[in-house]
């Protein structure tokens, strides 16, 4: 069966199952309700079924539309990571980075549109912006995770797409003392692609939970250590220009095939102290610390190919063109860049939160909450280059390129790229340029660092109303938060040691140096694309012994450092609803938030003119107030059926790199005489510290039917009207008269117009997002007792969006992270200690955020993905000498599905191809 037919079949089957169940299972639920009381005995379930039951119970009780996942046992979420588990929820998808699920999209809106909380508190991130990378949180530390798809007034920092709340265990809620340990081995199905890497790792965790002082004081402690390897056969194409030498057909512009090996090392710990000395006071202190270091070894070759893009190569006669694309060709005079790179990323994440609740009257409570979280991250991104000579002066290569069925091109060279007598340390293409003069760029080093701090204080009072009003209670409160994110960037040109200064060619910098034998650690193969082998060098040896560093003072590099500070005061008031309407129980809330924001940014403005770079400090910001009303209603039609409705207005702040004040101011002397507005000698590019948040008016409706002995079916629809959408490509005319002093008197006299263009993000977009979701959780014992232990959990979502930006009027854009169709399905069996599960996950094409030039984020169309995971395990039962011991075997990405992006809506124009292979895990757990 082909993938296309498999995909369509599964989508159709799931959709039909959900649709039919909406009609069949109400009758089934009624039949269950009518069962004799004698048969209504308590059924104790564990593992997968316990996790599903706990999640269904939370969803059922909540008057807000939510989804959730719950741990199967202490320290055991139902998947390898938090992101894996969240990606199985209805309307939630994950984008893989380095082979791991990291970036989440909720209801078609990417990570920039959601927020993540820890025990109800907003969190900082080790990422470049606001979106949380879930690798920073060890999954063993969480009891459950709740995804709010609708907002209420008491939910501070609710996102436009949704809000993810990571919830730690509460020790006083546990019945008995718990001591649990887990050890899990991990192996990637691909061999280690680099000689200085490994394809095997481990994960170890331990948890201790206990209560003291007559169950008034509880403590929970968790520790975790992870060494997680991954492998990546990685291919990147530069693009596809129309090649004049090939009759104007599309031609591969260039390509960078790599083999990449990663090792993520993460260590973490949590402590929760819970104290309830009386019925009038309850206190909880949560502490979390996580430290990780990820090391990436990358080795590959950059092949400049298309003559139109300056490769200087020659296309030989006899090339093949298929539907306007050259699919087979031989080229001579190719000068490639051989690369041995090393990326290291270290990060620390700490979070502390205290909560105290006082009962000051029978039904009145005062709540105080204080929290602080901080994250620090430093990157060391090292590139080293070797070639046959400086600036294409060495031996050239003859290569043969041919398109593969997967869209990537095979590249078969003639030169031996493992020959140290042929290749040396150099700038093979002469690409080095510091803004004013040529440099011998035999490597490059980026060293960005980020620090994110968030302090929050919250106070609230809640109480109940007397009488028989539909309004049962009330809550008012205020929250203050101060967040500051500082981004610093350093970069250096690297050149061979020897003569010269600042790596410049004009100063006599060495242009070519032999590869020291001590730097050679072997060879690696790029045979998946036709390169039999290349040099494997130790990039750190080259950096420490063979390369000089020259500070990168280009204007675009100097103007990157910045900080963004946000002081936010949120007042909220909410009426709680709990009463009867026409004999039906109605719960919910109505309320509003008033959010006052004072945002500011410190940075710089660079000026490049007359061959000199000037840097000036800059500050900017804005103050604004927003009112965010919300209404949530849950109508219990009968004891097993609920209709839930939500209407709200929410907002989410723009990306931090868009709010930065930094501007790269430029003077182009070639435009001195221009009189056309926008074509002035002056222009500027950068951020906008006056950006306002994205806003969304939301309508949500959900119909939920719960089965008496487990499981449920639900159908939900939603609509979001988006306003003040940030247009990252916005530009406008600006009068640069104040900048005339930057010019010489002669230049000022020649200026035709001072109206130049400023390129900066602005809130000039609008649009909408709408969709439907269907979910079915079905224990097969509801159908027949013979299938007791078997079950199904699945969902199907469809999302449609239309977004318009002022910079591109009349042309709708695609939302980053949006897949029109998302499907999740799981078949499981669990009984007598045995458990087995197979998961299928599908998402249609979407706009993915990937790392572009100099690690800057960029967007590309990603191909549809279908991923299958599986697990099987056994837990020894009471009476066994091994009671408390459980073993489990898990496998991820059994379909070995690569991550693929392409451009121009043409899958043949493939840009990224990343194959991660399959991952296997064997775990042993013991609970005392």
Description:
Residues 59-162 form the TonB-dependent receptor plug domain. It is found in: Cell outer membrane. Residues 1-29 form the signal peptide. It is a single chain. By secondary structure, the chain is mainly β. 8% of the residues lie in helices and 56% in strands. The strands form six sheets. It has a 22-stranded antiparallel β-barrel. Strands 1-6-7-4-5 form a five-stranded mixed β-sheet. Strands 15, 16, 17, 20 and 21 form a five-stranded antiparallel β-sheet that branches.
End-to-end span in angstroms? Answer: 47 Å
Uncertain regions spanning at least 5 consecutive residues: 1-44
- Silhouette: globular
The total of helices stands at: 7
Strand content: over 45%
Structural class: mainly beta
Mean pLDDT: 89
Rg calc: 30 Å
- Extended strand count: 51
Helix content: under 10%
Could you write a compact summary of the structure shown?
The chain has 928 residues and is mainly β. Helix content is 8%, strand content 56%.
């Amino acid at each position: 069966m082909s993938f296309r037919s498999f995909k369509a079949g599964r989508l159709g089957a799931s959709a039909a199952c959900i649709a039919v169940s909406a009609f069949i299972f109400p009758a089934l639920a009624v039949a269950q309700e009518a069962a004799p009381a004698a048969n209504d005995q308590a059924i104790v379930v564990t593992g997968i079924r316990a996790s599903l039951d706990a999640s269904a119970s939370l969803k059922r009780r909540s008057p807000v539309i939510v989804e959730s996942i719950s741990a199967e046992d202490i320290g055991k979420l139902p998947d390898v990571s938090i992101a894996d588990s969240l990606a199985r929820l209805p309307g939630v998808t994950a984008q893989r980075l380095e082979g791991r699920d990291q970036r989440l999209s909720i209801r078609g809106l990417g990570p920039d549109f959601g927020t993540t909380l820890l025990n109800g508190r907003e969190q900082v991130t080790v990422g470049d912006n606001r979106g949380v990378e879930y690798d920073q949180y060890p999954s063993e530390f969480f009891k459950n995770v709740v995804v709010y798809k609708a907002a209420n007034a008491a939910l501070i920092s609710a996102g436009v797409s949704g809000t993810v709340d990571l919830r730690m265990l509460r020790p006083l809620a546990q019945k008995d003392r718990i001591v649990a340990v887990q050890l899990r081995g991990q192996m990637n199905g691909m061999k280690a692609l680099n000689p200085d890497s490994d394809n095997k790792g481990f994960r170890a965790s331990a948890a201790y939970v206990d209560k003291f002082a007559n169950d008034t004081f509880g403590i929970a402690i968790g520790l975790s250590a992870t060494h997680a390897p991954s492998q990546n056969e990685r291919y990147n194409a530069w693009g596809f220009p129309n090649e004049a030498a090939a009759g104007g057909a599309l031609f591969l512009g260039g390509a960078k095939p790599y083999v990449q090996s990663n090792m993520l090392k993460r260590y973490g710990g949590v402590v929760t102290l819970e104290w309830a000395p009386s019925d009038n006071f309850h206190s909880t202190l949560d502490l979390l610390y996580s430290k990780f270091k990820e090391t990436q070894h990358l080795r590959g070759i950059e092949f400049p190919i298309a003559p139109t893009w300056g490769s200087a190569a020659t296309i030989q006669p006899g090339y093949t063109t298929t539907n306007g694309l050259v699919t087979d060709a031989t080229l001579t005079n190719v000068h490639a860049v051989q690369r041995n790179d090393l990326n290291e990323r270290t990060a620390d994440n700490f979070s502390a939160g205290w909560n105290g609740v006082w009962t000051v009257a029978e039904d009145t409570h005062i709540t105080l909450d204080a929290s602080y979280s901080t994250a620090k991250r430093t990157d060391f991104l090292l590139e080293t280059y070797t070639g046959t000579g400086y600036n294409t002066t060495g031996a050239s290569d003859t290569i043969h390129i041919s398109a593969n069925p997967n869209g990537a091109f095979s590249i078969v060279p003639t030169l031996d790229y493992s020959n140290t007598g042929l290749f040396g340390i150099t700038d093979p293409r002469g690409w080095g340029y510091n803004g004013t003069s040529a440099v011998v760029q035999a490597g490059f080093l980026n060293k960005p660092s980020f620090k994110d701090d968030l302090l929050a204080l919250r106070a609230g009072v809640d109480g109940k109303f007397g009488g028989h009003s539909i309004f049962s209670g009330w809550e008012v409160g205020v929250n203050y938060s101060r967040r500051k994110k500082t981004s610093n960037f350093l970069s250096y040109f690297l050149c061979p040691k020897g003569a010269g200064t600042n790596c410049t060619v004009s100063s006599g910098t060495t242009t070519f140096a032999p590869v020291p034998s001590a730097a050679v650690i072997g060879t690696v193969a790029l045979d998946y694309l036709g390169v039999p082998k290349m040099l494997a060098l130790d990039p750190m040896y080259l950096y420490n012994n063979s390369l000089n560093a020259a500070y990168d003072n280009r204007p675009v590099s100097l103007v990157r450092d910045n900080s963004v500070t946000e002081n936010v005061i949120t007042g909220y008031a909410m009426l709680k609803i709990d009463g009867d309407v026409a004999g039906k129980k109605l719960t919910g809330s109505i309320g509003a938030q008033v959010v006052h924001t004072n945002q500011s940014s410190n940075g710089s403005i660079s000026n490049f003119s007359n061959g000199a770079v000037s840097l000036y400090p800059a500050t900017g910001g804005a103050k604004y107030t927003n009112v965010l009303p919300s209404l949530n209603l849950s109508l219990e039609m009968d004891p097993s059926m609920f209709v839930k409705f939500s209407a709200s207005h929410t907002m989410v702040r723009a990306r931090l790199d868009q709010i930065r004040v930094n501007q790269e101011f430029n003077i182009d002397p070639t435009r001195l005489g221009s009189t056309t507005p926008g074509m002035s000698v002056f222009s500027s590019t950068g951020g906008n510290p006056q950006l306002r948040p994205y806003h969304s008016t939301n309508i949500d409706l959900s119909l939920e039917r719960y089965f008496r002995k487990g499981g449920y079916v639900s159908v939900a629809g939603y609509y979001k009207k988006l306003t003040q959408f940030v247009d990252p490509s916005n530009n406008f005319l600006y009068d640069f008269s104040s900048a005339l002093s930057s010019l010489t008197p002669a230049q000022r006299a020649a200026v035709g117009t001072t109206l130049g263009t400023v390129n900066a993000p602005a809130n000039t977009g609008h649009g909408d997002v709408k969709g439907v979701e269907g979910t079915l959780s079905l224990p097969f014992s509801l159908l027949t007792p013979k299938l007791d232990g078997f079950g199904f959990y699945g969902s199907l979502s469809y999302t449609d969006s239309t977004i318009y930006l002022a910079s591109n009027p009349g042309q709708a854009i695609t939302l980053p992270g949006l897949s029109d169709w998302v499907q999740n399905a799981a078949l499981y069996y669990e009984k007598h200690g045995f458990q087995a599960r197979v998961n299928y996950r599908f998402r249609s094409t979407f706009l993915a955020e990937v790392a572009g030039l100099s690690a800057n984020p960029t967007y590309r169309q990603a191909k549809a993905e279908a991923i299958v995971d599986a697990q099987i395990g056994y837990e020894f039962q009471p009476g066994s000498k091994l009671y408390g011991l459980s073993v489990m075997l898990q496998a991820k990405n059994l379909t070995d599905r690569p991550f693929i992006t392409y451009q121009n809506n043409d899958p043949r124009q493939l840009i990224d191809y990343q194959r991660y292979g399959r991952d296997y895990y064997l775990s042993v757990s013991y609970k005392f």
